[in-house]
Write a structure and sequence with these properties.
The protein has twelve helices and seven strands. With 389 residues, the chain is of the alpha+beta class. The longest helix has 55 residues. The radius of gyration is 40 Å and the shape is elongated. 16% of the residues are buried.
Length: 389
Protein backbone atom coordinates (compact mmCIF):
# COMPACT_ATOMS: atom_id res chain seq x y z
CA UNK A 1 0.00 0.00 0.00
CA UNK A 2 3.08 2.25 -0.13
CA UNK A 3 2.48 5.64 -1.87
CA UNK A 4 -1.17 4.72 -2.45
CA UNK A 5 -2.28 7.58 -0.22
CA UNK A 6 -0.51 10.29 -2.25
CA UNK A 7 -3.79 12.04 -3.14
CA UNK A 8 -5.00 11.91 0.44
CA UNK A 9 -1.68 13.33 1.72
CA UNK A 10 -1.78 16.09 -0.89
CA UNK A 11 -5.36 16.99 0.02
CA UNK A 12 -4.54 17.24 3.74
CA UNK A 13 -1.36 19.20 3.00
CA UNK A 14 -3.26 21.61 0.76
CA UNK A 15 -5.86 22.24 3.45
CA UNK A 16 -3.14 22.81 6.05
CA UNK A 17 -1.36 25.31 3.76
CA UNK A 18 -4.64 27.11 3.12
CA UNK A 19 -5.33 27.33 6.85
CA UNK A 20 -1.84 28.71 7.50
CA UNK A 21 -2.12 31.21 4.64
CA UNK A 22 -5.54 32.35 5.81
CA UNK A 23 -4.23 32.79 9.35
CA UNK A 24 -1.29 34.89 8.15
CA UNK A 25 -3.55 36.96 5.89
CA UNK A 26 -6.20 37.68 8.53
CA UNK A 27 -3.55 38.22 11.20
CA UNK A 28 -1.69 40.62 8.92
CA UNK A 29 -4.85 42.60 8.22
CA UNK A 30 -5.61 42.86 11.94
CA UNK A 31 -2.02 43.89 12.65
CA UNK A 32 -1.99 46.54 9.94
CA UNK A 33 -5.40 48.10 10.52
CA UNK A 34 -6.11 47.46 14.21
CA UNK A 35 -2.93 47.07 16.22
CA UNK A 36 -0.53 49.31 14.29
CA UNK A 37 -2.93 50.91 11.86
CA UNK A 38 -5.73 53.43 11.77
CA UNK A 39 -7.47 51.96 14.81
CA UNK A 40 -4.36 51.98 17.01
CA UNK A 41 -4.98 55.47 18.48
CA UNK A 42 -8.69 54.82 18.86
CA UNK A 43 -8.04 51.64 20.82
CA UNK A 44 -5.44 53.40 23.03
CA UNK A 45 -7.83 56.28 23.71
CA UNK A 46 -10.66 53.83 24.55
CA UNK A 47 -8.37 51.88 26.94
CA UNK A 48 -7.24 55.06 28.75
CA UNK A 49 -10.80 56.48 28.98
CA UNK A 50 -12.04 53.19 30.44
CA UNK A 51 -9.41 53.37 33.20
CA UNK A 52 -10.20 57.02 33.87
CA UNK A 53 -13.86 56.06 34.20
CA UNK A 54 -12.74 53.65 36.94
CA UNK A 55 -11.27 56.61 38.90
CA UNK A 56 -7.68 56.13 37.72
CA UNK A 57 -5.90 59.35 36.77
CA UNK A 58 -4.97 59.82 33.11
CA UNK A 59 -1.20 59.65 33.61
CA UNK A 60 -1.45 56.34 35.44
CA UNK A 61 -3.88 55.06 32.80
CA UNK A 62 -1.42 55.89 30.00
CA UNK A 63 1.36 54.17 31.94
CA UNK A 64 -0.77 51.08 32.39
CA UNK A 65 -1.66 51.06 28.68
CA UNK A 66 1.99 50.91 27.67
CA UNK A 67 2.86 48.40 30.34
CA UNK A 68 -0.06 46.03 29.59
CA UNK A 69 -0.58 46.58 25.88
CA UNK A 70 1.87 48.80 24.11
CA UNK A 71 5.03 47.01 25.21
CA UNK A 72 3.51 43.50 24.73
CA UNK A 73 2.28 43.75 21.17
CA UNK A 74 4.48 40.86 20.09
CA UNK A 75 2.99 38.55 22.73
CA UNK A 76 -0.59 39.48 21.81
CA UNK A 77 0.24 39.07 18.12
CA UNK A 78 1.52 35.50 18.71
CA UNK A 79 -1.53 34.60 20.83
CA UNK A 80 -3.80 36.10 18.18
CA UNK A 81 -2.14 34.09 15.42
CA UNK A 82 -2.48 30.88 17.47
CA UNK A 83 -6.17 31.54 18.12
CA UNK A 84 -6.81 32.30 14.45
CA UNK A 85 -4.89 29.20 13.37
CA UNK A 86 -6.84 27.02 15.82
CA UNK A 87 -10.15 28.51 14.62
CA UNK A 88 -9.40 28.03 10.91
CA UNK A 89 -7.90 24.58 11.50
CA UNK A 90 -11.06 23.51 13.32
CA UNK A 91 -13.11 24.61 10.32
CA UNK A 92 -10.75 22.67 8.06
CA UNK A 93 -11.06 19.56 10.26
CA UNK A 94 -14.81 19.51 9.71
CA UNK A 95 -14.01 19.23 6.01
CA UNK A 96 -11.46 16.47 6.69
CA UNK A 97 -13.99 14.42 8.66
CA UNK A 98 -15.77 13.70 5.40
CA UNK A 99 -13.08 11.07 4.92
CA UNK A 100 -14.22 9.34 8.12
CA UNK A 101 -17.85 9.64 7.02
CA UNK A 102 -16.97 8.00 3.74
CA UNK A 103 -15.23 5.11 5.51
CA UNK A 104 -18.21 4.78 7.87
CA UNK A 105 -20.57 4.50 4.87
CA UNK A 106 -18.32 1.81 3.43
CA UNK A 107 -18.39 -0.18 6.68
CA UNK A 108 -22.17 0.24 6.87
CA UNK A 109 -22.40 -1.16 3.33
CA UNK A 110 -20.60 -4.30 4.54
CA UNK A 111 -22.67 -4.64 7.72
CA UNK A 112 -25.98 -4.20 5.88
CA UNK A 113 -24.94 -6.93 3.40
CA UNK A 114 -25.75 -4.62 0.49
CA UNK A 115 -25.13 -6.05 -2.98
CA UNK A 116 -23.86 -2.68 -4.24
CA UNK A 117 -20.07 -2.19 -4.43
CA UNK A 118 -18.46 0.35 -2.10
CA UNK A 119 -17.59 3.72 -3.66
CA UNK A 120 -15.45 6.29 -1.84
CA UNK A 121 -14.00 9.64 -2.93
CA UNK A 122 -10.82 9.61 -5.02
CA UNK A 123 -8.48 10.32 -2.10
CA UNK A 124 -9.71 7.13 -0.36
CA UNK A 125 -9.42 4.84 -3.38
CA UNK A 126 -6.97 2.47 -1.61
CA UNK A 127 -9.38 2.05 1.31
CA UNK A 128 -12.25 1.53 -1.14
CA UNK A 129 -10.31 -1.33 -2.76
CA UNK A 130 -9.55 -2.93 0.62
CA UNK A 131 -13.14 -2.62 1.85
CA UNK A 132 -14.45 -4.23 -1.35
CA UNK A 133 -11.90 -7.02 -0.89
CA UNK A 134 -13.11 -7.55 2.69
CA UNK A 135 -16.72 -7.54 1.50
CA UNK A 136 -15.97 -10.10 -1.21
CA UNK A 137 -14.06 -12.29 1.28
CA UNK A 138 -16.93 -12.21 3.79
CA UNK A 139 -19.42 -13.04 1.05
CA UNK A 140 -17.27 -15.93 -0.14
CA UNK A 141 -16.90 -17.26 3.41
CA UNK A 142 -20.66 -16.97 3.93
CA UNK A 143 -21.32 -18.95 0.74
CA UNK A 144 -18.73 -21.55 1.76
CA UNK A 145 -20.33 -21.86 5.21
CA UNK A 146 -23.78 -22.21 3.65
CA UNK A 147 -22.49 -24.79 1.21
CA UNK A 148 -20.73 -26.65 4.02
CA UNK A 149 -23.90 -26.67 6.12
CA UNK A 150 -25.89 -27.92 3.12
CA UNK A 151 -23.39 -30.71 2.48
CA UNK A 152 -23.49 -31.67 6.16
CA UNK A 153 -27.29 -31.76 6.16
CA UNK A 154 -27.31 -33.76 2.92
CA UNK A 155 -24.88 -36.24 4.45
CA UNK A 156 -27.10 -36.65 7.51
CA UNK A 157 -30.15 -37.13 5.26
CA UNK A 158 -28.38 -39.73 3.12
CA UNK A 159 -27.12 -41.60 6.18
CA UNK A 160 -30.55 -41.47 7.81
CA UNK A 161 -32.24 -42.80 4.68
CA UNK A 162 -29.60 -45.52 4.31
CA UNK A 163 -30.17 -46.50 7.93
CA UNK A 164 -33.93 -46.62 7.51
CA UNK A 165 -33.90 -49.57 5.11
CA UNK A 166 -32.06 -52.07 7.37
CA UNK A 167 -33.76 -50.55 10.42
CA UNK A 168 -37.19 -51.16 8.94
CA UNK A 169 -36.22 -54.79 8.32
CA UNK A 170 -35.02 -55.15 11.91
CA UNK A 171 -38.28 -53.68 13.27
CA UNK A 172 -40.34 -55.97 11.03
CA UNK A 173 -38.43 -59.06 12.09
CA UNK A 174 -38.68 -58.07 15.75
CA UNK A 175 -42.43 -57.70 15.23
CA UNK A 176 -42.55 -61.21 13.72
CA UNK A 177 -40.67 -62.56 16.74
CA UNK A 178 -43.14 -60.84 19.07
CA UNK A 179 -46.02 -62.52 17.25
CA UNK A 180 -44.51 -65.92 18.04
CA UNK A 181 -45.29 -65.14 21.70
CA UNK A 182 -42.09 -66.69 22.96
CA UNK A 183 -42.25 -67.09 26.73
CA UNK A 184 -38.91 -68.78 27.39
CA UNK A 185 -36.21 -66.72 29.04
CA UNK A 186 -33.86 -65.16 28.17
CA UNK A 187 -35.22 -65.12 24.57
CA UNK A 188 -38.28 -63.13 25.65
CA UNK A 189 -36.10 -60.47 27.32
CA UNK A 190 -33.83 -60.29 24.28
CA UNK A 191 -36.81 -59.62 22.03
CA UNK A 192 -38.05 -56.89 24.38
CA UNK A 193 -34.64 -55.22 24.34
CA UNK A 194 -34.43 -55.48 20.54
CA UNK A 195 -37.89 -53.95 20.23
CA UNK A 196 -37.07 -51.07 22.60
CA UNK A 197 -33.72 -50.23 21.04
CA UNK A 198 -34.93 -50.50 17.45
CA UNK A 199 -37.82 -48.15 18.20
CA UNK A 200 -35.43 -45.70 19.85
CA UNK A 201 -33.10 -45.88 16.85
CA UNK A 202 -36.09 -45.20 14.59
CA UNK A 203 -36.99 -42.12 16.66
CA UNK A 204 -33.39 -40.88 16.53
CA UNK A 205 -33.28 -41.36 12.76
CA UNK A 206 -36.58 -39.50 12.30
CA UNK A 207 -35.30 -36.65 14.50
CA UNK A 208 -32.08 -36.38 12.48
CA UNK A 209 -34.02 -36.24 9.21
CA UNK A 210 -36.41 -33.63 10.58
CA UNK A 211 -33.60 -31.49 12.04
CA UNK A 212 -31.64 -31.63 8.78
CA UNK A 213 -34.67 -30.58 6.74
CA UNK A 214 -35.28 -27.67 9.09
CA UNK A 215 -31.62 -26.54 8.95
CA UNK A 216 -31.57 -26.62 5.17
CA UNK A 217 -34.99 -24.97 4.83
CA UNK A 218 -36.16 -28.00 2.89
CA UNK A 219 -39.49 -28.30 4.62
CA UNK A 220 -42.98 -28.17 3.09
CA UNK A 221 -45.88 -26.85 5.15
CA UNK A 222 -49.55 -27.54 4.45
CA UNK A 223 -51.13 -24.61 6.28
CA UNK A 224 -54.78 -24.77 7.29
CA UNK A 225 -57.06 -23.46 10.07
CA UNK A 226 -56.33 -25.45 13.23
CA UNK A 227 -57.62 -25.43 16.80
CA UNK A 228 -54.53 -25.57 19.02
CA UNK A 229 -56.64 -26.38 22.10
CA UNK A 230 -57.87 -29.58 20.48
CA UNK A 231 -54.29 -30.65 19.82
CA UNK A 232 -53.37 -30.10 23.46
CA UNK A 233 -56.43 -32.04 24.65
CA UNK A 234 -55.51 -34.84 22.25
CA UNK A 235 -51.94 -34.89 23.60
CA UNK A 236 -53.22 -35.11 27.18
CA UNK A 237 -55.20 -38.22 26.19
CA UNK A 238 -52.36 -39.76 24.14
CA UNK A 239 -49.80 -39.37 26.94
CA UNK A 240 -52.13 -40.18 29.83
CA UNK A 241 -50.52 -43.59 30.49
CA UNK A 242 -46.96 -42.22 30.54
CA UNK A 243 -48.06 -39.31 32.71
CA UNK A 244 -49.70 -41.69 35.17
CA UNK A 245 -46.53 -43.79 35.33
CA UNK A 246 -44.68 -40.75 36.74
CA UNK A 247 -47.73 -39.71 38.79
CA UNK A 248 -47.95 -36.39 36.95
CA UNK A 249 -51.23 -34.52 37.30
CA UNK A 250 -52.34 -32.33 34.40
CA UNK A 251 -53.99 -29.00 35.28
CA UNK A 252 -55.40 -27.54 32.05
CA UNK A 253 -56.63 -23.95 32.31
CA UNK A 254 -58.52 -22.94 29.18
CA UNK A 255 -59.22 -26.43 27.85
CA UNK A 256 -62.45 -25.12 26.30
CA UNK A 257 -60.89 -22.01 24.71
CA UNK A 258 -61.08 -21.93 20.92
CA UNK A 259 -57.54 -21.16 19.84
CA UNK A 260 -57.64 -21.04 16.04
CA UNK A 261 -54.31 -20.69 14.25
CA UNK A 262 -53.15 -21.12 10.65
CA UNK A 263 -50.66 -23.97 10.70
CA UNK A 264 -49.67 -27.43 9.47
CA UNK A 265 -51.54 -29.97 11.61
CA UNK A 266 -48.87 -32.69 11.22
CA UNK A 267 -46.05 -30.32 12.14
CA UNK A 268 -48.02 -28.87 15.06
CA UNK A 269 -48.64 -32.36 16.39
CA UNK A 270 -44.89 -33.00 16.18
CA UNK A 271 -44.29 -29.86 18.26
CA UNK A 272 -46.85 -30.84 20.91
CA UNK A 273 -45.61 -34.44 20.94
CA UNK A 274 -42.00 -33.34 21.51
CA UNK A 275 -43.05 -31.06 24.36
CA UNK A 276 -45.07 -33.79 26.09
CA UNK A 277 -42.23 -36.28 25.64
CA UNK A 278 -39.95 -33.75 27.28
CA UNK A 279 -42.38 -33.47 30.21
CA UNK A 280 -42.58 -37.25 30.61
CA UNK A 281 -38.77 -37.55 30.64
CA UNK A 282 -37.78 -34.65 32.87
CA UNK A 283 -40.75 -33.63 35.05
CA UNK A 284 -40.38 -34.41 38.76
CA UNK A 285 -42.40 -37.46 39.68
CA UNK A 286 -45.56 -36.80 41.67
CA UNK A 287 -45.88 -33.13 40.67
CA UNK A 288 -48.38 -31.13 38.66
CA UNK A 289 -48.05 -30.07 35.03
CA UNK A 290 -49.85 -26.84 34.17
CA UNK A 291 -51.23 -26.15 30.70
CA UNK A 292 -52.79 -22.82 29.82
CA UNK A 293 -54.54 -21.57 26.68
CA UNK A 294 -55.24 -17.88 26.09
CA UNK A 295 -56.55 -15.84 23.19
CA UNK A 296 -55.81 -12.12 23.59
CA UNK A 297 -55.13 -9.23 21.26
CA UNK A 298 -55.19 -11.36 18.12
CA UNK A 299 -52.64 -13.85 19.55
CA UNK A 300 -53.12 -17.48 20.58
CA UNK A 301 -50.81 -18.44 23.45
CA UNK A 302 -50.24 -21.91 24.89
CA UNK A 303 -47.96 -22.49 27.87
CA UNK A 304 -46.71 -25.73 29.45
CA UNK A 305 -45.17 -25.57 32.91
CA UNK A 306 -43.61 -28.28 35.07
CA UNK A 307 -41.05 -28.86 37.83
CA UNK A 308 -37.79 -30.39 36.60
CA UNK A 309 -36.44 -33.50 38.31
CA UNK A 310 -32.85 -32.18 38.05
CA UNK A 311 -30.99 -28.86 38.30
CA UNK A 312 -31.12 -26.82 35.10
CA UNK A 313 -27.60 -25.49 34.55
CA UNK A 314 -28.32 -24.12 31.08
CA UNK A 315 -30.01 -21.00 29.76
CA UNK A 316 -33.42 -21.33 28.14
CA UNK A 317 -32.15 -20.48 24.65
CA UNK A 318 -29.36 -23.07 24.97
CA UNK A 319 -31.87 -25.88 25.56
CA UNK A 320 -33.40 -25.30 22.14
CA UNK A 321 -30.09 -25.77 20.32
CA UNK A 322 -29.21 -28.96 18.48
CA UNK A 323 -28.01 -31.95 20.53
CA UNK A 324 -28.46 -30.11 23.85
CA UNK A 325 -30.16 -32.05 26.62
CA UNK A 326 -31.27 -31.16 30.11
CA UNK A 327 -29.75 -34.47 31.17
CA UNK A 328 -26.06 -33.59 30.84
CA UNK A 329 -25.01 -37.12 31.82
CA UNK A 330 -27.30 -38.46 29.04
CA UNK A 331 -28.62 -41.27 31.24
CA UNK A 332 -32.12 -40.87 29.80
CA UNK A 333 -33.23 -41.64 26.28
CA UNK A 334 -33.36 -38.82 23.78
CA UNK A 335 -31.50 -37.22 20.89
CA UNK A 336 -31.23 -33.65 22.15
CA UNK A 337 -33.21 -32.52 19.11
CA UNK A 338 -36.76 -32.39 20.48
CA UNK A 339 -36.84 -28.76 21.58
CA UNK A 340 -34.72 -27.68 18.60
CA UNK A 341 -37.29 -29.23 16.23
CA UNK A 342 -40.22 -27.79 18.20
CA UNK A 343 -38.72 -24.29 18.19
CA UNK A 344 -37.86 -24.22 14.50
CA UNK A 345 -41.18 -25.75 13.40
CA UNK A 346 -42.95 -23.10 15.48
CA UNK A 347 -40.97 -20.29 13.88
CA UNK A 348 -41.49 -21.77 10.40
CA UNK A 349 -45.24 -21.35 10.96
CA UNK A 350 -44.88 -17.68 12.01
CA UNK A 351 -45.07 -18.51 15.70
CA UNK A 352 -42.85 -17.66 18.65
CA UNK A 353 -41.19 -20.25 20.89
CA UNK A 354 -39.89 -19.26 24.31
CA UNK A 355 -38.31 -21.21 27.17
CA UNK A 356 -38.34 -19.74 30.68
CA UNK A 357 -36.34 -21.17 33.56
CA UNK A 358 -36.77 -20.16 37.19
CA UNK A 359 -34.85 -22.52 39.43
CA UNK A 360 -36.41 -25.94 38.83
CA UNK A 361 -39.48 -24.41 37.16
CA UNK A 362 -39.49 -25.15 33.42
CA UNK A 363 -41.94 -23.27 31.19
CA UNK A 364 -42.47 -23.28 27.44
CA UNK A 365 -44.63 -20.70 25.67
CA UNK A 366 -46.02 -21.08 22.15
CA UNK A 367 -47.43 -17.93 20.61
CA UNK A 368 -49.21 -17.73 17.21
CA UNK A 369 -51.25 -15.14 15.33
CA UNK A 370 -54.94 -15.89 15.73
CA UNK A 371 -56.66 -17.15 12.59
CA UNK A 372 -59.83 -15.31 11.67
CA UNK A 373 -62.11 -16.92 9.11
CA UNK A 374 -63.40 -14.64 6.30
CA UNK A 375 -66.69 -12.89 7.03
CA UNK A 376 -69.86 -13.79 5.10
CA UNK A 377 -69.59 -10.57 3.10
CA UNK A 378 -65.96 -11.34 2.12
CA UNK A 379 -66.92 -14.91 1.19
CA UNK A 380 -69.83 -13.68 -0.93
CA UNK A 381 -67.57 -11.22 -2.77
CA UNK A 382 -65.01 -13.99 -3.37
CA UNK A 383 -67.65 -16.39 -4.72
CA UNK A 384 -69.09 -13.66 -6.96
CA UNK A 385 -65.59 -12.85 -8.28
CA UNK A 386 -64.92 -16.54 -9.06
CA UNK A 387 -68.28 -16.94 -10.84
CA UNK A 388 -67.63 -13.82 -12.96
CA UNK A 389 -64.22 -15.16 -13.91
Amino acid sequence: MKNNYRKLKFSILLQTVLVTALTVLVGGVLLKFVIDGIYNDSFARFFVDALVFLNINEKTAIHLYWKLVGDNKTFYMIVGYLILFALFFYVALSQMTKYLDQIDHGIENIISESTDPIHLITELKPIEIRLNEIKATLKRQELEATEGEKKKNDLVLFLAHDLKTPLTSIINYVDLLKRLKITEEPAKSYIAVLDSKSQRLKQLTDDLVEASKISSGNIVLNLEPLNLTELLNQAVGEFSDRLEEKKLQIIFDGSDVVGMIYADSRRMWRIIENLFQNICKYALEGTRVYLEMKVEGGRVTASLKNISDRPMNLKGEELSERFIRGDASRTTEGSGLGLYIAKNLTQAQHGEFQIQLDGDLFKIILDFPEYESPSQEETAVLVETIEEA
